Amino acid sequence: MWYAYIILSILVVFLLVYIYIRFKYGFWFYQPVFHIYDFKYYLFPPGIIDHNLPDKNKYTNFKSIDTLSFEKVTDLKMNQFINFIQLHYLQNKNNTFMPKKENVIPYFSHLNASAYFSFYYEDILLQDSKTNEPIPEKKIISVMTSKPVHVAIYNGSSDAEFDAYYVDYLCVDKEYRKKGIAPEIIQTHHYNQRHLNKSISVSLFKREGELTGIVPLCIYSTYAFSMKGWTRPDLLPPVFSIVECNAQNFHLMATFLREKVSQFDISIISAYSNILELMKTGNIHIYFILKDHEICSAYFFRKTCILVDKDNEALTCFASINDVDSRELFIQGYKNALYKIVEKNKGFKCCVIENISHNDILIQNMLLKIKPFIISPTAYFFYNFAYPTFKSNKTIVIC
After folding, report:
1. How far apart are CA 325 and CA 332, in angstroms?
2. By CB count within 10 A, which of 69, 162, 213, 240 is most buried?
3. Can you identify the CATH homologous superfamily of domain 222-398?
C-alpha cells in the first residue's frame, strides 16, 4: 500500500512543478528547450529537439518585427541600434553600458555565416513643429541579435559538433517591459533566423541574475572586484614570458586552442577570423604564457563598455586555459596579463571574472585576499537542444 502513496506523491510533485512552470514562465513552457521536468531528457538527451523549421504561432509578429542579416543593416539602423542599447541595455542605478559603434560591429563581422539583427517597431505619430501636421514614425521598442558559433562536445564515443547562434543584446525599452514584447521578438527572430539559414537549428542564450526553469548548459557565478590599491605583481620566472596575442602571433594561439579545447567537455567558439577582428579592434585582449616558443597557458579578457559608478570601466576575464603543472605560475600569469592591460588602458578599474573554464583557479586565489563587490549568478542555455548540464570548469566559451 505504501508503494502507492510514494508513486502518488511523486506524481503530485511532478504535477505541481509542471503547473508552476507553465504559469510562471508562460512563453518558455512552449519552447523547444530542456525544461526541468523533462525527465526523459535526463536519461536520453536527444540533442536537437525539433529538426523541422518552426511554424508561425501566436508569438510570431511579422508586422512589427524586421530581421536583417548584418550585411543589410544600414549605418542609420546601426546608429539607432546603438543608441537604443545605450539607453535600455544593462542599465541600473550604479552601472551604465556605453558602447560605441567600434565596440559592436566587430562582433558581427568576419564570421563563417551571417549574423542577424531584429528590430521591434511601434508606429507612433509625431507633430510637425511648423505645420502641426502629424508625421508617422517607427519607434524601436526592442532589439535582438545572433551570431554563429561552433559547438563541440567531447564525450568519448558520443562526441558531437555543430554550429549554433549565440543570442546577444536581447533588450526591451524600459517603458514596454512585462508587456509580452520579449517573447514576440525571440519567437520571430528564431523563426526568421531558421528560415534564412536552414543549416543552423540551435541557439544559445546567456542569462545573468534570476534564472529560468530551463536546465542550463552551464551555471556559475560571476565575481567583480575593485582594483583600487592594486600594485604591480611579481614577474614570472625567467624561462617564462607573458606575451600579448596579436596578428603576427595569432597562429600560435589558434594552434593552442585547437589542441587544448578538448581538455573541456564542451567548447563554444566563434570563428577564428572573428576572434582576430575583435582582438585587432581592442574589444578582447588575449595574453599567453610562452616558454621555448610554445604556449603554456592563455587568458581571455573583454572590454565590457560597462561603467561602474560612472567612470570605472569593468574588464572581464571570460575564459582561460591552464596547461602548466604549477597553479601558482598560472595565477601569476593572469596577474601579469591583467596588469599589462590596465597599464595601457587606465580606464579599467574593475576586474570581473566569470567562474567558467579554468577561471576557478584564479577566483579561488582572489577570494583569499579580496572581497568581491558583486557576485552574480550566470548561466548559458541551449534553445532547441537538450543535453545534461556541464560543469563550469569543463566548459569554455570564446565568442
Report:
1. 13
2. 240
3. Gcn5-related N-acetyltransferase (GNAT) (3.40.630.30)
